[in-house]
Structures are given as C-alpha cells and as structure tokens.
Amino acid sequence: MKKKICFIINTLLGGGAERVISTLANEFCEEYDITILLLLNKEKIDYSLDKRVHIIQLPKFKNKLTKFIGITKNLSHLMKELNCDLYISFCTIENVMSLTANLFARKNLFISERNAPKTEKNNMFIILLRKLLYSKAKGYIFQTEEAKNCYSIGIQKRSYVIANPLKPDLPTAQPNNNKMICAVGRLNAQKNYPLLLESFSEFLIHFPNYRLFIFGKGPQENLLHSMIHQLNLESEVILKGFSNNVHEEIKTMDFFVMSSDYEGMPNALMEAMAMGLPCISTDCPSGGPRALIENGVNGLLFPVQDKQELVKQMSLLARDKKLRMSIAENAKKIADNYSVSTIIEKWKILFHENIY
C-alpha cells in the first residue's frame, strides 16, 4: 500500500507556493497517495494536476470571527480521518492553522515557511500564535539558509532547506533591444511596485521610448493605476494582469526588474534568469535573490527601497548591451541547480527520513 502524503494550503490560485505544491503532487503521485487540502473554498484551481491527486476543499465560512475556529476544527477532523503518513503545510497563516488543528489530531506535521519570517506582514494574532506554536511541528522546510536562521537552534536542527523547482520547458529569452522592461508578480505591498514606477519615471528622463510591462493581479491594482496617472506614464507603463503564458510574453524583453521589500525564493526571478533575461533585484530578506544572483556577474542587486540605486542599475543595463548579454548568459546557468529533478531529490530525502 502506498504511503500517504497531504499538502495543506489556502488555495491553488496563482502563486509561488501553490505552483510548488502542484509540481510536487504531480511528481510524487506515482509513488505516493497524494492529497491537497485547501482551507479556503475558492473552487477555481489555476494549476493542472494529475488525476491521481486528491483535492479536498473545506466548506466556506462567511463569519470572520468564527472562520479561524471553523477551519481549524474541520482541519483537525480531516487530518484524523485521512490518517496520512506525513502532512506538510505551506505559508505562515496555513502553518498556524495546521499547528492549531494538530494539537488535537496529533499527526506527523511539517510546516514550510515560504517568505521572510522577520519581514512578512501578519496581524498580531497570527504573530502570537506563530511564537506559541511553531516549535510544536515535527519538522520544517525553508527556502533559504537565511530564513532558517531566523528561528531557534531547536527548530534549525529539525529543518530542511529546499529551494523552489524551476518551471520546466521555459522558453529561451530572445531580447532584441526593443526598449521593453518587465516585472512579474502579485500586485501587493510586498512587491513594492510604487518604487518601480517612481524609478522608471526618473529612468525615462535619460532613456525615453522605453516601456514597462507589469504582469500580475492583486489588491494594489487601483493604487498602481492612480500612480501611473499621477506620473504621466499612461503610454509607457502597461499593467498586463495575470497571464497563463507569461514566459512567452516576456522572452523578448530587454531586462527584468524585481523591486520587492521581501521574498522567499522568488519564482519569477528564478524563471527570468533561467530563460536568459538580464535581471535586477532587491537584495531583500530572506536571502532568495542573493542565493540566485552574484552581483554584476549573473544579475544586479540593489538595496531594498533604494530608488536611486535602482535607477542607476536600470540605466546601466539600458546603455550597456555587452553587459546585458554577459549577465544573461551567466544567468542561464542557474537552471542546473534548480531543475525539477534536482529539487525533487531533496524532497525524496525528506520523505524517506520522515515516513519510513
């Protein structure tokens, strides 16, 4: 009989953690009985899953006051009922709810931190529960050493550091000096798109005729439209929304920019580099960009929220085609370190050490 593994996350709508779970489920459903347990009933699923993967959605809870209690109660019941050999929760809020549920279910639960622990924005209730409950997990998965080092020695000793796998079959970048820049990611405060817009506005003073394409959707869309209007960038900045074919759409861009205040291991940056796009990124916690980029060799790093340095680096790439080509060629080399097969081997070690 196959061993049973259950992944826990809010939804399978577009997102980095969601894509990783989908990839793992598809890769392991031959060897294991895989279930994905969705805490928020959104019905829509943005990722293609093997028919052997079981999807369970918790019922909807309209009352916010009883939502946390209702989800954790249902989750605890399901964890007992499914009786899986290993449960793995992804993302901070889901981790807190899973740990609360597991106080009663008492199962083999790992939690996976997907962002920067010291910088991620959460309400005080979640922060308090994280402090109280995180030590109670059986084990932990972090994307970077920096994220792991945010926690106690006891937690670090029970931890694995496993980066995200690259999306397979990425197209090869074909930049043709067409004065186009791209950014990819959810339109939320974490990504700090206002910094990118302000920097791009200054960049245009010396490098006119460039256009900036931002791919993604999210709660700051109206704010960004307002900023674009205020900065008179309606002709130069295009909010493209969510794209199922984003890599084909960005492969001819001159370069890629990520302006985030914090990240885990950013999929969009990894993928742009592996495609062979020259990339600029904040050197943000929890160290994901720094793990990917050797500054000046296979990409450019700049300090978080440093507008002038971002303008400087965008200007550098715009004027120096030879540098763009050199960075792009070196960036492609990360593909070997983060291929699906390489990352899957690390997950196999975790499974075998904690199930058998």
Q: Strands, helices and their partners?
A:
Layout: E1 4-9, H1 16-28, E2 33-38, E3 54-57, H2 64-82, E4 86-90, H3 92-105, E5 109-112, H4 124-133, E6 139-142, H5 145-148, H6 153-157, E7 159-161, E8 180-184, H7 193-206, E9 211-215, H8 221-230, E10 237-241, H9 246-250, E11 255-258, H10 267-275, E12 279-282, H11 288-292, E13 300-302, H12 307-319, H13 321-331, H14 340-355
Parallel strand pairs: 1-2, 1-4, 2-3, 4-5, 5-6, 6-7, 8-9, 8-11, 9-10, 11-12, 12-13
CA radius of gyration is 21 Å
Average per-residue pLDDT, rounded, comes to 93
Which regions have little confidence, pLDDT < 50, spanning 5+ residues?
none
The helicity comes to 40-55%
Q: CATH top level of the largest domain?
A: Alpha Beta
Strand order of the largest sheet: 3-2-1-4-5-6-7
**Main sheet attributes: strand count, strand direction, barrel closure:** 7 strands, parallel
Shape, principal axes of CA atoms = globular
Number of strands: 13
What distance lies between the first and last C-alpha atoms, to the nearest angstrom?
Answer: 13 Å
Under CATH, the topology of the largest domain can be stated as Rossmann fold
Give the helix/strand class.
Answer: alpha/beta
Number of domains: 2
CATH architecture name of the largest domain? 3-Layer(aba) Sandwich
* The CATH superfamily title of the largest domain: Glycogen Phosphorylase B
The arrangement of helices and strands along the chain is EHEEHEHEHEHHEEHEHEHEHEHEHHH
Range of strand content: 15-25%
Instruction: Output the number of helix runs.
Output: 14
